[in-house]
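Bumping with the actual sequence this time:
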Amino acid sequence: MKGILLLAIVLGAVLGLFGIVVNAPPEQSKIAGAMSIVALIALGVGLRGPLGRAIATLVGAGDDSRAGEERARLAAQLDELMEELRSTRDEVGELQERVDFAERLLAAPERRTVPLSDRAAGDEIR
């Protein structure tokens, strides 16, 4: 709110100087024009210094709260994505263990198994 007020004051000063130049009697219009040019130059130089930085800080103050909210939202989103990444890594690890187990089963030599009912009493179990 302070930034809008300061902007209105600066804009009012510039328009006021313009009004002086436009409404000045013909004999004073040259002096009023020169004064307005000098005032605008002084205003420009002043705004480049500490006063300008102070005004910029006040004008930008409203953006800081929105930027803070945006940072908080992005931080929450980052935490959510990191948790999802951890979960996905765990699932990939479990799948890799299953693939390794299946590869070992497929690579093992075939074992011939005989159902228990068909076995003789002395047969070995392989």
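The tokens above came from a reply further down the thread. DSSP finds three helices and no strands in the chain.
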